[in-house]
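Exercise 4. Each item below gives a protein and its sequence. For each, produce the structure-token representation.

Item: ABC transporter substrate-binding protein (Arthrobacter ramosus).
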Amino acid sequence: MTQHRRFPGLKAGALAVPTVAALILTGCSASTGGTTSAGGSQEISLAFATSNNIESPYQKLGEQYMKSHPNVKITFNPLPNDSYDQTLRTQLQAGNASDVMVTSPGSGTGRSILPLTQAGFLEPLDDAAKKLVPVGSESLFGADGKVYGQAPEITVVGLVTNETASKAAGVSEFPADWAAFEKECSSVASTGKSVLAVAGSAAPNTGLMAMTLAATRVYAVDPKWNEKRAANQTTFAGSEGWKSALQAVVKMNNAGCFQKGVAGGGFDAITKGLASGTSLAAFVPGPSWLQLKTAAKDADFVVRAFPPASSSDKGFVFASANYTFSINAASKNKQAAKDFLDWAAQPEQTKSFAEIDGALPVSGMDSYDFSSSAYKNVGDLLKNGKYGPLPNTQWPNSSVYDALSTGVQGLITGQKSVDDVLKAMDSAWG
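Answer:
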């Protein structure tokens, strides 16, 4: 599957991929099975991953549905993001998972559609969901003409930056390439602040950072790199681009790009760092700009692509139908769950969800006004097709991403080398 897409392709939804932790609400699991009550009332449950104390867009969407459908009650089951994949699979295996679950297309994570479908956990969806699957991406959503996930929005993944804090720190213009970025890190560090806030103790964030660094170094240069890896025509350990991406992690650490105590930092280090202005940017999904805005109303947050490795390299950003809704195959309320997803697939709802979450709409992107949005700095890349899905959508299993994520943690602590990490990824590929 090609990773460069022309902009009109976003009209039906960009390439769908799994990404990692968005900055949303923290909570505990409380899985329930919905019921149908007397009088035609219905109950369904909805599970989603959370990362802090801001209300989840999935919960807001559910609340809107209940408001317009007074006979429906939705029980919300937020699960901590760092344990979401494992908890979800445990609940599915035990038969007590929610009726509707937030999943991810592809096969790169524990919540991904393909392995869950192969295990018999997911219910095929209706035509409303099929219409939101981008042409050429059907294999990420299911098989044999069936789809098991419904995309609610388009997510850009790169950097979210606090522009107000950047100007206060003397950064008048965002670095245009790697050399300028590395220099800026040293300059900002001398003031007691950091250019980047990284959740070093949270594998999802360290893995996302590494993949973002690989955007211009690997996938802008060779959009078919994943296909070549699958055909054993290349390896992570033999890729100069992947070596450069992981070497950049080490260089950023040495240059003071990260906040102090980065190895022990959780997602709160990102939220607090960017909201307070002690850090200027973070590797988080684009919708986080809006969630951060609620914590720092006077600050201006925008989404950016990470600077290319050199001034002559092509710019590139990851953009995709990030997460998906799926229905539990063991649900006793399948029709009620499908009614909810059919409603969520309507253009009015996809637009509303994107606005709630601070993302881009899964439909109607051809008329989107980038110039007045938080995505103004990536608009040209999207219009010119300089984007693609996060790499791990095409990786054969979640172990490859796990090897990358934990490996980067080892790079930060100095316990692993770049070669160690890349060899582990090749080994996990199998």
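Check: The chain has two domains: 7-154+321-363, 157-319+389-429.
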